[in-house]
Here is the input.
Amino acid sequence: MAVDAAHLEGVELFRALSEPDRKALASVMQAHQSPAQSRLFDQGEAGSSLFVVRTGKVELFVIDRAGQTIVLSHVGPGDVFGELSLLDGRPRSAAARVVEDAELFELGREDLVGLVRRIPDLALDLLAQVSRTTRRADELLSERVSRNVNEEVEEHLSPVDRVADWCAWFSGSVLFLLLHVAWFIAWVVINTAHTGVPQFDPYPFGLLTMIVSLEAIFLSCFVLISQNRQASKDRIRSDVEYEANIRASLEVTQLHAKVDRLYEQVLARLAALERAGPLVSR
Here is the structure.
């Protein structure tokens, strides 16, 4: 589908183009209609074109080594994406998925190179676009810190969860035991001995048995609720620990690579000094 040159006027990347140049550019671009939830390209896929969003919204994301989806940005009308693979010829560094029905303009690598040769200022705009993309990625990385499990679980606690946690904690305390011991002794003494207090639950203490049974039922329910929440908390902690291990492994690998490079550089310099040694002595 042909592209109307008027649709390129609002694209910041092509602001340095004159009207004839925009018409020439529009003549080599292809228009595509992409429905929502369609995948434009995948991470690691070979890419030799960039896209301009005419209408709709596109999501750019990557999948890290832990299998999590990291959304880099959402691009809308007038935005450009896919320029990195277009410039360096390497595989796509991210995947693109259409969020809302979109109309996209596609520009191939050879056509862009020819345009840059005729209009050098366009190269500066391309570098500015790459710089903005890099800055967004840096901001995203700076915000992706390890999660605090306690804070994350605390944010989703309901009143019932809080009551269950308190009951589970209190039922396992020494104070709970002492209160029940005092309560049972007082109950038995009042209903078996002549203390002047009317005996309201004589032996075999049917009322006490019923109360204790009901208490046990409610306490067991609260303890199970608290244990289920603790299990969810443990799963989150396991995920966080797995992410931390993956990151640590990657950092160790990078350190090994840096040490290897430094070792190679040192060997190369020592070899150069050995070759230069006889010349210096002469």
